[in-house]
Amino acid sequence: MKSILLVEDELVISRVLKAYLQKEGHQVWQADDGIAAIRLFDEKKPDLVLLDVMLPERSGWEILQYIREKSACPVIILTALGQTDQKLKGLNQGADDYITKPFVAEEVVARVNAVLRRSAILVKDQETRFFGSLRINFQSHHVTLHGLELVFHPRDLSLLLFLAQNPNQTFTREQLIDQVWGIDFAGSDRAVDLAIKRVRKTLENWPAQEGEIKTLRGVGYQFCVY
Description:
Helices cover 44% and strands 23% of the residues. The strands form three sheets. The chain has a five-stranded parallel sheet with strand order 2-1-3-4-5, sandwiched between helices. The protein is of the alpha/beta class. The chain has two domains: 3-126, 3-Layer(aba) Sandwich (Rossmann fold); 130-225, Orthogonal Bundle (Arc Repressor Mutant, subunit A), CATH 1.10.10.10. A hairpin with a 3-residue loop joins strand 11 (211-216) and strand 12 (220-225). InterPro entries: CheY-like_superfamily (IPR011006), OmpR/PhoB-type_DNA-bd (IPR001867), Sig_transdc_resp-reg_receiver (IPR001789), WalR-like (IPR039420), WH-like_DNA-bd_sf (IPR036388).
């Protein structure tokens, strides 16, 4: 099951699409204006966004720009603006597909599934994951936050990469030493605490509602994402 944020101010269209997407097995959140769309995107972190262009409060173009500044989440534009220049505008600004109204609900579902499949393959190939505004490329060891590159001590980076590859799993200090420092490490497990402290300092601008490196007292540490 994938999560879909459906941003559409025409209630009938929104209800029909939600029913078809749920029948396909997807979880659907609905927004009928631009402000609600941004709030739900930040709160729910959907796998895909279906985005109308003509919206109250903020336009679909503004929302698309907002999403692209912090995420690679797939976006499909839904609009009555079918001119070629409008389609090119959407695709050039980072949309993954463009569907013009009127449309058949089955086609929208098929397009959603196709984009989700392509997205899954792309993420796997690039070995990149987004945790809200935190982006980690596990192949290049490149980490950015709000689009800005973060610099880590090599050992601290290895610790972050290991924890991020295993989100929401708790590891003891001994397990982290084995995985990051190596079983031949002769120092104190205090090294883990100090490294965690430095990583947290580097990630201090990572919004708390997106995730954190959590301490489970008496147990260990966890890369916790929401």
